[in-house]
Specification:
alpha+beta; Immunoglobulin-like; 2 domains; 4-stranded antiparallel beta sheet; about 25% strand
Length: about 210
């Protein structure tokens, strides 16, 4: 009787140990599965956010200044800009420029308007690269909208908001040359980021010399 009781007890222990091992294994398996599911969920979430960000970036309007030159012997400048291939057409009057500069004594000058609107001073011209510009072209008219992926020329006139046609031509090439300073050009476009370009004379006020 003593032997049979002991054998039965050993069998019960074996069954209990086996059940415990299976139970622990099931817990470990559940933890592994849960960890895997969490990682997959996080990965999907991150990829979704990245895709949404890529779509947002590709859908907004963008523009860069690709060139800038002294345009005449007064205070006019010529710029070339290129719009991003994505985005949508932009009306010219919705593009706002801001031209600023600061003299060594701290005097600050600025002027701002819709692109192509001089609001006094020299006329501001805007045309697509490859088309005839305003020189010797009496029938010239500004383009009215900008297409994605296209490049355009535009001119800017020095001066201030209060005196756009002022003789000093503030922030224009002669003014920058006289004071040994640089100017700042900002372009603001709808449904897109604003851009900033520093304007620095490369060869004084010589016509055709670069200013970026």
């Amino acid at each position: 009787m003593m032997r049979r009781s002991r054998i039965k007890s050993d069998d019960e222990c074996s069954v209990g140990s086996g059940a415990l091992i299976v139970y622990i294994a099931m817990i470990l398996l559940a933890v592994t599965i849960s960890f895997t599911v969490i990682n997959i969920t996080e990965s999907i979430s991150q990829n979704t956010q990245k895709t949404a960000e890529d779509v947002r970036r590709n859908s907004v309007n963008s523009v860069i200044i690709t060139g800038a030159w002294v345009y005449d012997n007064q205070d006019d400048m010529l710029f070339m800009m290129e719009f991003g291939a994505a985005g949508e057409p932009v009306d010219r009057v919705d593009v706002i420029y801001v031209l600023t500069c600061t003299e060594p004594d701290g005097t600050f000058h600025y002027r701002s308007a819709a692109l192509g609107d001089s609001q006094g001073g020299s006329a501001i011209h805007v045309w697509e690269v490859g088309d005839d510009g305003p020189v010797d072209n009496p029938g010239f008219t500004n383009v009215n909208n900008f297409q994605p992926g296209a490049r355009y020329f535009f001119t800017l006139d020095g001066g201030t908001q209060a005196s756009p046609g002022g003789a000093a031509g503030e922030c224009g090439p002669p003014h920058l040359d006289t004071h040994g300073i640089s100017a700042n050009l900002y372009l603001h476009i709808p449904n897109g980021q604003s851009i900033h370009q520093i304007l620095t004379l490369s060869n004084g006020r010589e016509i055709g010399s670069q200013i970026i």
